[in-house]
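G., the chain you wanted modeled:
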Amino acid sequence: MTREAPKTPESPETPAHRSSPSNPSLPSSPPPSLSSAVVFDPGSGLGSREVALRPAGPGEVEIEVRAAGVCHSDLHIVTGDWPTDRPLVLGHEAAGVVTGVGAGVTSVRPGDHVVLSWFAPCRRCRKCVAGMAWLCTGTKAVENTLPDGGTPFTDARGEAVWPYLGLGAFTDRLVVPETAAVKVPEELPFGIGALLGCSITTGIGAVMNTARVRPGESAVVIGTGGVGLSVVMGLHLVGADPVVAVDLSPERLAVAKRFGATHTLDGAATDVAAWCQEELGGVDFAFEAIGSPAVIETLPAMLTSGGAAVLVGMAPSGATGSFDLFDLADQGKRILGCNYGSSIGEIDIPKLARLHLAGRLPLDDLIGATRPLSEARAAFEDLRSNTGVRTILEP
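Predicted structure as tokens:
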């Protein structure tokens, strides 16, 4: 999902929230209300914590969360693949309703239905101005803060709790930068909207934006979890053929078939590179949606000359790989990095929403269980169970 593991703010002394100077002549404000949130603390692990939320400031939007997806990028924090040195409210793919806006906000207003786009661009850096917001160098999302370097959350003791990827969606209310709140049609189900915030946009964007697959071109997809299935769906949408899905789970492969895969292979029983060469003469595109360095190293051997390997899954921090450099040069093969499906949230998310509402994308089939927020731990177990579909949490 991200092009690098999320970072943490450099200094723990960064202001946690804005507040007005105290004035003894004014009546004291009532204590802020607390809401339950799913928090990962590097000292105590995954748990529930009561948090308070400050109001939206300039350029910010307050959201009532209606649905949140559980993604492997959240699991990377829980497992320690992406270390953090401070407590994080987890959750980064969500949808909800705008309940308040700060000064200067013009794109949404209270009552609007929105999808939360975790990679909130600054709109000012060189990459944003060039139309490549997915490579924004000014975003603070990967540092797990809002654009001002702070957090809208504090716990019951007044200590800062930080928003994972600038959102922190595993709670009932949050404050985000305006660029993270993307207005969508009211008829879009909140569960579908939540997945548009990350996995669907990443997977379909990898096909349409990063690889720019054309009708009739061939592809193999390694890993058919939520993102991998979205890749398969994107390939079907653009008319790719054949589309080969590879996984270790028969259940996931059956789902991939429903989403448009023309062939399925058991990755444990098949030499995928050899199969691609023998049966297809190599494929035009090889998508890796797991984040496994060992698997990524095998992708070039699956390609035909001029083909491209697309790295969609996120490897652990610091992971490296090796390739046959002569083969890459001699055969004109490419390796493409894919951050957030090379997508611009405010453009691509509404487009995908409209395609779903028009019946072109069967996104409902990506949703498995729907659980209350209190069952977040069980939702992570759903994620580990290799079903290929997403669990949705509802506050």
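The CA atoms of residues 226 and 335 lie 22 Å apart.

Shout if anything looks off.
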